[in-house]
């Protein structure tokens, strides 16, 4: 069965702290893609990153970084020096032959 | 130009009514989706179409009927609306392998 687990339902941190959002996935396939999406309070869903199962290199984009570890089936997302604008619900997702399954999301509050 | 546009943004209706949500994408993608987001923010796939053909139907009640007149459009018709249908419905299109471009969502409230 394909499954995405985001164990952290809600996290609150003070601005400028670093925060890591956890994502654990299950799949029987050897080829798959993993994603993070952001849903700010305005409600739209925004693509952040896609990773394929053959590429375990970590990725950094500005204050965002992603750590993909196949050995632990995890694809964690870290925000460095968080800002109030990072407050949102973040979804991890797994693509299994174009059927994209989302985790339940982590609601992140960045407190000023 | 909005890449994926869905209308209406808000829909308030009585139980038992029939309503439709329209979605259009101008990205040239072959694949389009409908997702339902409940009050707890859980996103669940409902349907997927590839070039007007139904690919995924996730055991959605048959009161929900998607229609794709061409690959740029995927509409959702809902018959006999129930209270439990209240949610935000998102349309999305994809160039493949999971990268989704979402519409802004339709907030459906069934009274």
Summary?
Chain A has no helices and twelve strands. Chain A is an all-beta fold and 112 residues long. In chain A, strands 2, 5, 6, 10, 11 and 12 form a six-stranded mixed sheet that branches. Chain A has a four-stranded antiparallel sheet with strand order 3-9-8-7, with no helix packed on it.
Order of helices and strands of chain B: EEEEEEEEEEE
Shape of chain A: globular
The description of the largest β-sheet of chain B is: 7 strands, mixed
Cα Rg of chain A: 14 Å
Give structural notes.
The complex is a heterodimer of chains A (112) and B (111). Chain A has 112 residues and is an all-beta fold. Chain A has no helices and twelve strands. Chain A has strands spanning 3-5, 10-14, 19-21, 24-26, 33-39, 46-52, 59-61, 64-69, 74-79, 88-96, 99-102, 106-111. In chain A, the strands form three sheets. In chain A, strands 2, 5, 6, 10, 11 and 12 form a six-stranded mixed β-sheet that branches. Chain A is globular, with a radius of gyration of 14 Å. The model of chain A has no long low-confidence stretch (mean pLDDT 93). By secondary structure, chain B is mostly beta strands. Chain B has no helices and eleven strands. Chain B has strands at residues 4-7, 10-13, 19-25, 31-37, 43-50, 53-57, 64-70, 73-78, 87-94, 101-102, 106-110. In chain B, the strands form two sheets. In chain B, strands 2, 4, 5, 6, 9, 10 and 11 form a seven-stranded mixed β-sheet that branches. A four-stranded antiparallel β-sheet of chain B has the order 1-3-8-7, with no helix packed on it. In chain B, 32% of the residues are buried. The mean pLDDT of chain B is 93. At the A-B interface, strand 5, strand 6, strand 10 and strand 11 of A face strand 5, strand 9 and strand 10 of B.
